[in-house]
Sequence to fold (117 residues):
Amino acid sequence: MTGPNSGCVARSNQGITIFSLSGYLNHEYLLVLRQALEKALAAGERRFVLDFRGTEIINSPGIAVLLEIGSLVTEDHGGALAVFGLTPHLHTILEISAFFCFATVKPDEAEALAALR
Fold:
């Protein structure tokens, strides 16, 4: 998945979809991600990794969409979500927002993939 301003790219690794996020994560950006996840879920995919290495910052409406994404994947579809590449600041924000109730945090891509296998 790529879009003109999305900065979000999807790829697959042995049945796990990895979304590489970059730039400023706002409401609109994360709605594009949500739509891509909804398509993947409709196609039967259930394991996802979010790569935050290229992410600069996330705003409050973006956090709300990210929480919706976590609930959609894990609660509505019984899927699994892992994340990596968080800056200390972004880690704190997502921890405070309770996003980690939906996602496993790992230090790198290899460990994030291993957590979902």
User: Anything to note?
Assistant: Residues 1-5 have pLDDT under 50 and may be disordered. The first helix runs from residue 27 to 42. Helices lie at 27-42, 60-76, 88-96, 109-116. Residues 9-116 form a domain with the Transcription Regulator spoIIAA fold (CATH 3.30.750.24).
